[in-house]
């Protein structure tokens, strides 16, 4: 099993060589046998290599997906209440 320090070096090397964050996440972070706290720390470290503009776009896209989910859930709830009258 790779240590946290070894995985940090692997993430850094891959990010500096131009790999995408999602590829590093899929190839290095997710399959590691680290506990969730260490994986989260490793994820944050890898994410720190992503440019701020890309970070913001990704965050906003995620927020919009969550807002759409909330809108759909509210619509389903309203339809369910109408059907039960």
Q: Strand tally, please?
A: 0
Q: Return residue spans where pLDDT drops below 50 for at least 5 consecutive residues.
A: none
Calculate the mean pLDDT score and round it. Answer: 94
Q: How many structural units, i.e. domains?
A: 2
Helix content: over 70%
Alpha-carbon distance between the two ends:
58 Å
Strand content: under 5%
- Structure class: mainly alpha
* Order of helical and strand elements: HHHH
- The DSSP helix count reads 4
Structure in words:
78% of the residues lie in helices and 0% in strands. The chain folds into two domains: 1-50; 52-85. The radius of gyration is 19 Å and the shape is elongated. The longest helix has 32 residues, at 52-83. The protein starts with a helix and ends with a helix. The mean pLDDT is 94. It has helices at residues 4-16, 21-29, 36-47, 52-83. The chain is an all-alpha fold.
Short description:
This protein is mostly helical.
Label this structure with key terms:
85 residues; single chain; mainly alpha
Task: Lay out the secondary structure.
Layout: H1 4-16, H2 21-29, H3 36-47, H4 52-83
Helix pairs in contact: 1-2, 1-3, 2-3
